[in-house]
Design brief:
This protein is mainly alpha-helical. The chain has one domain. Helices cover 61% and strands 0% of the residues. Helix 1 crosses helix 2. The chain is elongated.
Length: 119
Amino acid sequence: MDFYAHQERARAASRRLTALFVLSLIVVVAAVNGAAALGWMLLGGGTRWPPYFFATNTMVTLLIVFGGAWVEWQRLRGGGAALPRRSRSAQAPRCPRCTCSTRIRSTRSRPASVPALRQ
């Protein structure tokens, strides 16, 4: 396994995902502003927008998006143990052969490259 090639692929994927996130954020802000403008026109406001109409819509939209991201980030700060609690799933049983805190995973979720535990 070439570590540096793998790291470069991971960086390229991160750049791609970041660019897609920014693009989707621009699309969401444009859609919200378009819907708000259409609603304003249909309610009789015409094309005379109130002061800071689009700036306010944009800021509220960004606040909701980044506020939601912050809430999810805070939830995930607990690490791997927080995920089963959040999804209300059962934890994997502990390893019966020792007193370590390793959890046994089902062989169904084990990648093919990882050998199974011997009994």
